[in-house]
UniProtKB/TrEMBL annotation, chain A:
InterPro entries: 2Fe-2S_ferredoxin-like_sf, 2Fe2S_fd_BS, 4Fe4S_Fe-S-bd, Beta-grasp_dom_sf, Helical_ferredxn, SDH/FRD_Iron-Sulfur, Succ_DH/fum_Rdtase_N. Its cofactor is [3Fe-4S] cluster; [2Fe-2S] cluster. It comes from the Bacteria. This is Fumarate reductase. It comes from Flavobacterium reichenbachii. Belongs to the succinate dehydrogenase/fumarate reductase iron-sulfur protein family. Residues 151-181 form the 4Fe-4S ferredoxin-type domain. GO terms for molecular function: 2 iron, 2 sulfur cluster binding; electron transfer activity. It holds the Pfam family Fer4_8. GO terms for biological process: aerobic respiration; respiratory electron transport chain.
UniProtKB/TrEMBL annotation, chain B:
InterPro entries: Cytochrome_b-558 (IPR011138), SQR/QFR_C/D (IPR034804), SuccDH_FuR_B_TM-su (IPR000701). Keywords: Heme, Iron, Membrane, Metal-binding, Transmembrane, Transmembrane helix. Pfam families: Sdh_cyt. CDD domains: SQR_TypeB_2_TM (cd03498). The chain crosses the membrane at residues 21-40, 60-82, 103-124, 160-178, 198-219. Its main location: membrane. This is Succinate dehydrogenase. GO terms for cellular component: membrane. It is found in: Membrane.
Length: 248, 221
């Protein structure tokens, strides 16, 4: 395949940055998108140019590290996949492909296509956990009865890998799908109910502090989420927050 | 330590938007019902309009509540839009919004601004003359003037066209707004799918009824 890549290049956080065009040839349809970028980088290095910086780690759709906004969509045109699971057969020979970093005030660009997603970590630190006494008297979680439907929904919410595609694709840069998944995975379980009020108040407060936008229920996040996190979680978080507001 | 709920929290702003939206949806249902009477009976329309115009509960309680709801909905809309724009200071070179969200959901501010402009025209046509009649000129109540005033307004093809375009944009606004308000209130259960369909029906039937009323009076007179 012969392609034209239009890639966002930015030396550092202070640099203004801009789109740079790279023609590339010899791309196999069965290559992953990241392998295609590896080929490009090899060519750039051989020419003595700076390779394109991009995030990646597990390359099997588990870690949530790879990002990229490809031809106007988070993780590209495929559904239910991360960028490392996106294959070049989704494109046609001769295509022009725009490759940009995830854009949000809360995800500042570090270099080229690499963005700082530590705002998600700070939201997690604000309440995405349960407090457990580990002195040796901890009750085995398996001895606590949990409704099967709740357990399944909690597990579905916990599938969120925190990649940030929801923020990147949302026209408002809202982080509601991510935060609601983290709130829901605990809110649905007995162990999580103890700190439920503090959790939702603290996590939403931190989310607002980070400068994410407001959810307008377009549903784009659910469509683009590689793990299929449901909008149901956002509705649940709204309920949790309203209930917590009345208590606190 | 737990944060206390902040009045300016993003979720509470969305709830305010949803509550005012649901209130305005209820008002629209009442408004279209009363307006449709004008297509059926001139006399009944005059009677109903006179009742609405001089009933103290409607004039001094419901009207201010309605005004508050309208202002709250628009102000919150502008505040949320400004915050959402600030949340992405650098735009994408290519953004394919149509790939994952409907036009109506992505352009609520556009349909909302058209509705706001329409409200200006609507107040100029009906509300300001009504206030002038009652409180500036101090005219005596006349229960037979409403139908004639209505018909007179729809003589102009330009005005009728502007009303119809506004109603179509109102339809787009409601198409997303109805279900969105329920989601913002935390509703997502076995009834949600049915209620969304009710919302889509409302978004088609109510604006279509307004369009029919405008066209009926334009062509009938």
């Amino acid at each position: 395949m012969k392609l034209t890549l239009k890639i966002w290049r930015q030396k550092n956080a202070q640099d203004k940055g801009g789109i740079v065009e790279y023609p590339i040839d010899g791309i196999e349809p069965d290559m992953s998108f990241l392998e295609m970028l590896d080929v490009l980088n090899e060519q750039l290095i051989n020419k003595g140019e700076e390779p394109v910086a991009f995030d990646h780690d597990c390359r099997e759709g588990i870690c949530g590290m790879c990002s990229l906004f490809i031809n106007g969509e988070a993780h590209g045109p495929d559904r239910g996949v991360t960028t490392c699971q996106l294959h070049m057969r989704m494109f046609k020979d001769g295509d022009t492909i725009f490759i940009e970093p995830f854009r949000a005030k809360a995800f500042p660009v570090i270099k080229d296509l690499v963005v700082d997603r530590s705002s998600f970590d700070r939201i997690q630190h604000a309440g995405g956990f349960i407090s457990v006494n580990t002195s040796g008297n901890t009750i085995d979680a398996n001895t606590i009865p949990v409704n099967k439907d709740d357990a399944d929904k909690s597990f579905d919410a916990a599938a969120c890998i925190g990649c940030g595609a929801c923020v990147a694709t949302c026209k408002n840069s809202s982080a509601m799908l991510f935060v609601s998944a983290k709130v829901s995975q605990y809110a649905l379980l007995p162990q999580g109910k103890v700190e439920a009020t503090d959790r939702v108040l603290n996590m939403v407060h931190q989310m607002d502090l980070e400068g994410f936008g407001n959810c307008t229920n377009t549903g784009a996040c659910e469509v683009e989420c590689p793990k299929g996190i449901s909008l149901e979680n956002i509705a649940r978080m709204n309920r949790e927050y309203l209930a917590a507001s009345l208590k606190g | 330590m737990a944060q206390s709920a902040q009045l300016n929290a993003s979720i509470l702003k969305k709830v305010a938007m949803a509550l005012s939206g649901i209130f305005l949806i209820t008002f629209l249902a009442l408004h279209v019902t009363l307006n449709f009477i004008s297509v059926i009976s001139e006399n009944v329309f005059n009677e109903v309009s006179h009742f609405m115009g001089y009933n103290p509960l409607i004039q001094y309680v419901m009207q201010p509540v309605l005004a508050f709801g309208v202002i709250l909905h628009f102000v919150m809309g502008f505040v949320l839009t400004a915050q959402n724009s600030a949340a992405r200071p650098i735009s994408y070179a290519r953004y394919n919004g149509a790939a994952n969200a409907s036009w109506s959901s992505r352009n609520m501010i556009i349909s909302g601004l058209v509705i706001l402009a329409f409200l200006g025209l609507h107040f100029y046509d009906f509300w300001f003359p009504e206030l002038s009649y009652k409180y500036v000129a101090g005219e005596a109540p006349n229960a037979t003037r409403y139908y004639e005033d209505l018909v007179h307004k729809f003589e102009s093809p330009v005005r009728t066209g502007l009303y119809c375009i506004s109603f179509i944009l109102l339809g787009f606004h409601l198409w997303h707004g109805f279900a969105s308000s329920l989601q913002s209130m935390g509703m997502h259960n076995k009834y949600s799918r049915f209620l969304s369909k009710v919302g889509y029906g409302f978004a088609v039937v109510v604006p279509a009824a307004f369009v029919i009323i405008a066209l009926f009076h334009h062509f009938n007179n």
